[in-house]
Amino acid sequence: MNEESRNRTCRGCGPQYEVTEAQIDRILQAPMFQDETIVVPDHIYEQRLAACHGCEHLLQEQTCQLCGCYVRVSAKYRSKSCPNVKLRGWESYAN
Ligand code: SF4
After folding, report:
1. Which of 4, 39, 44, 68 is the most exposed place for a label (fewest CB within 10 A)?
2. Residue 27: alpha-carbon gap to chain centroid
3. What is the radius of gyration, based on Cα positions, of the chain?
4. Ligand 1 atom closest to Cα of residue 51
5. Residue nearest atom 2 of ligand 1, based on CA coordinates
6. What is the domain range of residue 67?
7. Does any domain span residue 39?
8. Residue 12: alpha-carbon gap to chain centroid
9. How many angstroms does the Cα of residue 48 sit away from the middle of ligand 1?
10. Ligand 1, atom 6: nearest CA belongs to which residue?
11. For residue 12, what pLDDT is reported?
12. Which residues of the chain have pLDDT under 70?
C-alpha cells in the first residue's frame, strides 16, 4: 500500500471523526475489553492487526474503509470478523 492510499480519508467523514491513538487507548481500557469472554487472546489480536496493516482498505492506519470501525477496537472482539467477504482478513474467534 502506498503512502497516499494510507492517508486518504473517508469520502463522507471529515476531521471531526478523527480520533487519536490516546483516545483509542482509553476506549480499550473499558472493563468490557478486559473480559476474556468478549475479547480475543493477545496473539490473535496481533495477527488481526497485522492483517489490517497490510490491507488496502485501512485508512489513516486506524479505520477500516469497509465497515467504518477503528480496527484496534473491532479486532478485540471474538464475535467480529473482517468485513471483506472476498479476502477475509480475519475470522471470528470461537475458542
Ligand atoms: S478489517 Fe478486513 S477489510 Fe478492514 S482493514 Fe482489516 S483486513 Fe482490511
Report:
1. 4
2. 13
3. 13
4. 7
5. 82
6. 21-95
7. yes
8. 19
9. 9
10. 52
11. 67
12. 1-14
Quick one: pLDDT at residue 19? Answer: 86
Residues lining ligand 1, CB < 6 A? 51-52, 55, 57-58, 64, 66, 71, 82-84, 89
Which amino acid appears at position 26 of this protein? R
Region for residue 60 given its phi and psi (left: phi exceeds 0; alpha: psi -120 to 50; beta: otherwise):
left
Whole-angstrom distance, CA of residue 84 vs CA of residue 57:
9
Q: How far is the CA of 84 from the centre of ligand 1 (A)?
A: 6
Q: Which pLDDT belongs to residue 18?
A: 77
Total count of domains within the chain: 1
Any idea which residue has 477496537 for its cell? 73
16 belongs to a structural domain: no
Residue identifier of the C-alpha nearest atom 3 of ligand 1? 84
| pLDDT tens-digit readout, 7-26 | 566 666 667 777 899 999 99
